[in-house]
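Give me C-alpha cells for this 138-residue protein.
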Amino acid sequence: MEAQRNKGLDDLTGAISISCQFDAGHGAAWRGDSYSVMGASWQGGLIVYDSMDFSASTARMTGSEGATGSRTGEVKMRVAVTDNGIHFTSFNPRGDLVSTTVFPLTDKRDRYIAVMSTHSTEFNHYSSQFYGLCDTLP
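Here you go.
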C-alpha cells in the first residue's frame, strides 16, 4: 500500500493536469440553530486542475461556471502536497470556500480518488461534499 501511495503521489505531482469527474455527494443547510442533511447531485461537469507550481503553491481550476463560481470558468487555487495527496483550495468569485483533495490511491482503472468540499456564503449556509475520480495528463 505504501509503495502504491508513493507511486501515486509521484504521478500526481509530475502531471501536467488532473481532470476530475465528481458524482453524488451530501450537503447540509443551517437554518437558525438546526441543520438538515441531504443527498447532493453533482451537476458541474468535468473539473481540471492545471498550471500547478508546487514551489509557489499555485494552480488553476477550470470547469463550468456553476462548478467554479466564475463567469470565465477559471479560479486561481492554492496547492499543497502532503503524504495524503494533493490539496487544492480557494475562495471562488461568489466567496465560497472550495477544497479538493486528490488522493494518491487509484481504483481498478487507475483513476485517482478525490473529494471536493464547498462551504457557501449564503445566508442559510449550505455546504456540500462530492466524491469522484481523476485522471492525469503526464
